[in-house]
Design brief:
7 helices, 582 residues, binds (2S,3S,4S,5R)-3,4,5-trihydroxy-6-oxo-oxane-2-carboxylic acid
Length: 582
């Protein structure tokens, strides 16, 4: 799904700003016809989570109703108009001028509605009902009662009752766009790159249109001293072509070279639509125990993180996004995983531009395999894989897809759940390695479907408390066993310790900045001795908000190496020493 763009054929208008909100704890809005507009709304910022904007909103998960008014700021003749939501957590249902547009399930991924037939020339009223309540048949699941025999018991008693370790922020989290495209304009562009021989890049381009265009496709690729065009005809609504780039300036973290690609629909000599993308020429694959970027081994240093900030919750905040890249660069990171949901689209644009390697993860965190709701959870996971790949397939920065975080795969049903999911992802994108992050280690049956084994480990924290000298040999043996069993490269996708900022201890002890720094340093030193390990992702870049529970002082996970307001702890300095020297 393309990000909206403005050029001489397309127009896009961001509807962000102050909207109205009304909470609906009795769930009576639908019966009271709020979809046609409601009274007694109060101002709310969009995009942002509603939870920290209002005192009684913090633990309220919905339903809540949003509304705003707009008129169309551009010429609409010959155009199709769409409303596009970047992320609404969790259920969304929208109405324009009282007409139902439809619904969408799942946060963190975009959805859109064509509004051409229902849009007014004058003022338009958009109403959105948002429901972020936790339920067992949602993904991520929540509100599931703990079973003393399984891991959920450690989350039982959380408030709100999440089955995952971050606050279940709700609301319209990313910009809402009104955009217009030519009637038979470009609907989608897919770019794939290869390096068939040294220094030569090949860029494959596929363009799909709204309807069947009686026209041709022209593609223009330029940058780094190269300038070339190609044309192709359409079969049905699709046209494909490719361009060769001799002496290609390849994309990598050290040299995030990007080319400009313009795709155009041509009728005679006239251009009827165009769309621009940045293209990075690179390959990524797994060979033996290595992860190869452009044919060369690459080692990942970086983090798991969250889209999380005071007051705005999980709302899109460009300044914090820029800051986080600055911090990751300062500390020497070259990569991150979008734990535990796909991040905003501008975040990936910046990764392309700044040269960060991204493991893009679906919102499938905390999956469990009890029968109730299983079919629904599975179909949601398939939907997320489709939506994520569709959205992010053109980013050179995205080097792998992660299809889940910490599924409770001890169930024999897990492999049957994941096999078709991995098959779907491979079919949609044969070009990128696939993975999931597991806490089970060698017991994770679904590792058989993965190209890279992502392991989350907290020895010395949740077990072997305060005893790093015990924890590290155990980790070492476990990693060797895991590699021995699967013979695939291993990435430690999570490790770390909570550190209360300003809390110090000598000798180091749990919750002190010293212990966190020592634990992270010890893990890294060990990982560097394992030839099959392809990277280290510390948990977490920054402290972040969680549900209330006995293990989360002040409803915060303190495993950040930076505080929630982005100040370094001792561990950030330690990482900088380790990562900057390579
Ligand atoms: C994990 C989870 C992550 C948690 C982390 C922790 O394994 O993947 O979401 O926040 O542990 O700090 O417990």
């Amino acid at each position: 799904m393309l990000y909206p763009q403005t050029n001489s054929h397309r127009q896009a208008c961001d509807l962000s700003g102050l909207w109205d909100i009304r909470f609906d704890p009795a769930d009576s809005g639908l019966r009271a016809d709020w979809q046609a507009g409601f009274e007694a709304g109060r101002p709310v910022a969009v995009p942002a989570s509603w939870n920290d904007q209002f005192e009684e909103g913090r633990d309220f998960l919905g339903p809540a109703w949003y509304q705003t008014c707009f008129s169309i700021p551009f010429e609409r003749k010959g155009k199709r108009l769409f409303l596009r939501f970047g992320s609404v957590n969790y259920l969304a249902e929208a109405w324009l001028n009282g007409h139902s547009l439809g619904g969408h399930e799942g946060g963190h991924l975009p959805f859109e509605y064509e509004v051409t037939p229902v849009v007014n020339l004058g003022e338009n009223q958009l109403v959105v009902r948002v429901d972020g309540r936790l339920a067992g048949d949602r993904v991520p699941p929540g509100g599931v009662l703990g079973d003393p025999a399984d891991f959920f018991s450690s989350h039982a008693g959380n408030f709100p009752p999440t089955q995952f370790d971050f606050f279940p922020f709700c609301g319209i989290h990313r910009p809402v766009w009104l955009y217009a495209v030519p009637e038979r304009g470009i609907r989608d562009v897919t770019v794939r790159t290869e390096i068939p021989e040294a220094n030569t890049g090949r860029v494959h381009i596929r363009v799909e249109c709204h309807g069947r265009p009686s026209r041709r496709l022209r593609v223009h690729l330029w940058g780094h001293g190269h300038d070339a065009t190609a044309e192709a005809g359409f079969t049905q609504d699709t046209a494909e072509t490719w361009l060769e780039v001799p002496q290609a300036a390849l994309w990598s973290p050290d040299h995030p070279n990007l080319y400009n690609l313009e795709t155009e629909l041509i009728r005679g000599e006239e251009t009827t639509d165009s769309y621009r993308l940045k293209v990075g020429i690179r390959t990524i694959r797994v060979e033996g125990d290595r992860l190869l970027l452009n044919g060369e081994p690459v080692y990942l240093t970086g983090f798991g993180r969250h889209e999380d900030f005071p007051v705005t919750g999980r709302g899109y905040l460009p300044a914090v996004m820029v800051k986080d890249y600055a911090l990751m660069r300062w500390v020497g990171a070259n990569s991150f995983r979008t734990t535990h949901y796909p991040y905003s689209e501008p975040m990936l644009d910046l990764a392309d531009r700044l040269g960060f390697l991204v493991i893009d993860e679906t919102p499938a965190v905390g999956l469990y395999f009890r029968e109730e709701g299983l079919e629904k959870r599975q179909s949601l996971c398939h939907q997320y894989v489709r939506e994520m790949i569709d959205r992010d397939k053109n980013h050179p920065s995205v080097i792998a897809w992660s299809l889940a975080n910490e599924p409770h795969s001890v169930s024999p049903k897990a492999a049957a759940f994941f096999e078709p999911l991995f098959a779907q992802a491979r079919e949609l994108d044969p070009g990128r390695p696939l993975t999931l992050a597991s806490f089970l280690g060698a017991e994770e049956e679904s590792f058989e479907f993965c190209d890279v084994l992502c392991l989350n480990r907290y020895l010395g924290w949740y077990t072997n408390c305060g005893r790093l000298e015990e924890a590290l040999p155990l980790l070492s043996a476990e990693l060797d066993g895991l590699h021995e069993k699967f013979r695939k490269p291993v990435l430690l996708t999570e490790f770390g310790a909570d550190a209360l900022p300003g809390h110090h201890a000598q000798p180091p002890e749990m919750f002190s900045e010293e212990y966190q720094a020592e634990m992270i340093g010890g893990y890294i030193e060990l990982l560097r001795r394992k030839p099959y390990v392809v990277g280290e992702h510390v948990w977490n870049l920054c402290d972040f908000k969680t549900a209330q529970g006995v293990t989360r002082a002040g409803s915060l996970n303190y495993k950040g190496v930076f505080t929630r307001d982005r100040r370094p702890k001792l561990a950030a300095h330690r990482l900088r020493e380790l990562w900057k020297k390579g």
